[in-house]
Amino acid sequence: MFSEALDGILLTDEQGILHYCSLAVKTILGFDPEEIVNHNIFEFVHPDDTELAYLSFLNEVNNKPVVKFILVRLLKKDGTYLWCNVSGHNFLHNPHIRRVAIYFYDDSLRKQAEDALKQSEERFRNLVENIQLGVILRDADGKAILCNNAVLNLFDVDKNDLLNKPLADLKLMLINENNELISMEQHPSMIALHTKKPVEDFVMGLYRRRKKDWVWLLVNCNSILNEKGNIVYIIISFTDITVQKKLSQQLVEQEILRQRALTQTTIDTQEQEWMHIGKQLHDNIGQQLTTTKLYLDIAKQTANEANMEMISLATKSVYDVINEIRKLSRSITPSTLEDIGLVESIRDICESIKLTHAYTIRFYSQFFEEENLPANLKLTLFRIVQEQINNIIRHAQATTILIQLQNDAEELMLSVSDNGHGFNPSVKSNGSGLSNIKSRAQLFNGHTEIRSSAGKGCSLELLLFRW
Q1: What phi, psi does 305 have (nearest 5°)?
Q2: Which residues have a Cβ under 8 Å from the Cβ of 144 and sit 6 or more positions away?
Q3: Beta strands, E only, 229-279
Q4: 281, 328 Cβ separation under 8 angstroms
Q5: What is the pLDDT of residues 277-332, one digit of tens each?
Q6: CB of 18 within 8 A of CB of 37?
Q7: What is the pTM (predicted TM-score) of this model?
Q8: Who's near 207: CB < 8 A, 6+ residues apart?
Q9: Are 202 and 194 in contact (CB under 8 A)?
């Protein structure tokens, strides 16, 4: 059995002197057994491995083995060395053997594979360490087992704060592109872990507590699966896109400013046209009608009884037209804003509507102070109220209108609601009235919201922050 064994088998005394060699020694090392018998086994061990081999042999002789086997280099007959897996067994106290048995076999292929793996891992670690891209390697439990310096700089943390810890322990403050908080379950690495699918180009903001700033990251995650399809590792890469994000935001803000400037110019031009029309109505047409009324009054003095009725009807008609033109002129050119203020100007609108007896209209402004509001904002609020009331009169078939206006140091709220037949805002296209209201509100970073449904009226809300 010894002679035919593929592993090399040696028997030595307690000094390490060889007394027997199996035929496999010839196959593995190239020596005939008789060439090495009576030699000390340590003559065939590489000098760098002699200490390890001697200590292991001594422990085995003293029945205090520390390891089951060792990996050492053994001398071949051609002068080269071969990596071999060597183990020993103490039979010194066995009366039939009284030797130390040593078994060894060629382990060079496994050693080469192990060295290649270590070199590959080392190259991978060096690659990860030196690239500018932030990289984290997480295991199947979500713990970080590898990270590079780039990710430590991006996160502004120490390696000990990141490695061997689950994601939840890091207590990161993350947001998405809509500035909404990202929970740990929404983190791209957790998505990749649960779905076993790659997550590509996920944009998120990270708050760095020590630097007290935000950094924007482009995140990609890829899962490494075993042969059973289970996740072994997740590779996460982070690219700093803070500069690009700021430039993009600047472009968006510039476009918003440009659109606001165009809207403001359009509204200013519209206001100028209305002022001109109002002036023409008041100064020219109104004056001409007043003169016509004077002519009719004079004609009354000389008219006979047959014509008196017609002249009286014409005088009344002209008088009614003059009053209507005055009302129209005042609505187009609200000079009362400068004279009596926004609240009283809205009350004037309400009073004129009450005279028709067609609507019940209420206006609440007890929590509103207009003293520090700019003139153009007052005009905007007046126009929005005016526009929405016209919308209600034309389309809502309502009987009640409610206007509320309130503000504090940070926020202003305007609400105009009615009890009309309502509509579905999601399917009804915005007419020019609502479009004008939204355009005016956007000039002051205002947010408008329409709440309505069939048969339940409509409510228009405008919110302004730090105008």
Answers
A1: -65, -30
A2: 136, 137, 138, 162, 163, 164, 165
A3: 231-240
A4: yes
A5: 655 555 566 566 666 766 677 677 777 776 777 777 777 777 777 677 666 666 55
A6: yes
A7: 0.39
A8: 172, 173, 174, 175, 213, 214
A9: no
